[in-house]
Amino acid sequence: MSRLVLRHADHLATFDADGTEHRDCDLIAVDGVVTAIGPGVADEVAPEPGDRVVDARGHVVLPGLVNAHQHLYQGAFRAVPELERIEILPWLAGLGARVRTALAEGRFGPGAVEAVAAAVLAESLLGGQTTVADQHYFHPAGRTQPYVESTIAAATGLGVRLTAARGTLTLGPEPSVLQDVDEVVRHCAELIDAHHDPSPAAMVQVALAPCGVHADRPELFDELAALAADRPGVRLHTHLYEVVDTDACRALYGTSPWEFLVEHGWAGPQTWLAHVCDVPVAELPDMAAAGVAVAHLVAPDLRMGWGLAPLRAMWDAGVTVGFGTTGSASNDGANLLGDLRLAALAHRSSHADPQRWPTARELLGAATRGSAACLGRPELGSLQVGAAADLAAWDLTTVDRVGVHDPVAGLVLTGLGSQASLVAVGGRVLVERRSPVGWDPDAVAAHAREALSP
Hints:
Blueprint: E1 3-13, E2 21-30, E3 33-38, E4 52-55, E5 59-63, E6 65-70, H1 88-104, H2 110-126, E7 129-136, H3 147-158, E8 161-168, H4 181-195, E9 204-210, H5 218-229, E10 235-240, H6 245-253, H7 257-263, E11 271-275, H8 284-290, E12 293-296, H9 298-303, H10 311-317, E13 321-323, H11 336-346, H12 360-374, E14 391-395, H13 407-413, E15 422-425, E16 428-432, E17 435-436, H14 441-452
């Protein structure tokens, strides 16, 4: 038996269904699962040899943040000068050209992808993220290489939970990167058999994730929907309602992007979508009724010039909303908490009534409980008895949080940095007092730089 005992947290926000919050709170986890939570509960159990006891005085504790949409491999292409101010299609073409150049120079094989994924996952972990959903859709020359497997290895090495979403490109003007539908389905089934764990304790799950309605063939959506329906816990994911989607769907199929998903068996609770920034608001109740969830990506949507997704309208319609960062260069950082801060401010421009502005608790709820729901992981995203002991804590005693009256709102609205002081995944402490435990971020970064060197 392994036991984590967290004592005397100044403030603990559970993000359970009732929004319960505690002051001077303890938490006990046994074998990676929360068994007790509340003021003084640690005083009711006898200490055992091997207990991991953490003093959380001066901290606000939350469930670990869940990043519902990332492209980890793109961490190799941050802040590319010629891609700083261009729109989505030339951006994708420019990114593809960079990847092909790196491949030609021997700099972007599976080993490099693993090293880069580890670096971005380390950044995520230091920022309080305990679970990341990664979509890897780029397979140069249309060949399946172990890029997804390499990403799984990176997450496993660090101890971060991963939803490995096997992405695809099967339609488009760049034949050099397009994959055959049968080959994609074969590899998806292979990944599920080898790596997908449907249990609540899962460290790795597999999802099926075409790039989008403008970039993948309709028959692929049919095949993947059928495959997911046959495999417990396997979910479906894709980009939807990026600005290119509506025109592409109308031109190719005579439907809206949402109607396309309905026709191809994706309008169900196994599906979560990324972006959804220019969706017709009239379609949102249908999405909610179908149980389809959305990962809101505020920073990349603004970076691409798409504007703000209708966040409040999604909530009003009953759509489950999570949060993600996506990858570089449409978002050159993996700072989910920083993106929440951006959302708290940017969405104020959408509503004249301040009561419609998103609150810090709504946004943190989206990045914890909401994102966990996107991934079909009800055991994640909240701190309550029976939930996974995935948690993050931030120091309230630093100079940038002097004067904060509400520590939960202060987590979003203040702070010179977003680095967590404490992070645990499945009850295993991976960061304590802002220092990694059992791993070295400098070594991770050095390995990634070496892997990308000519």
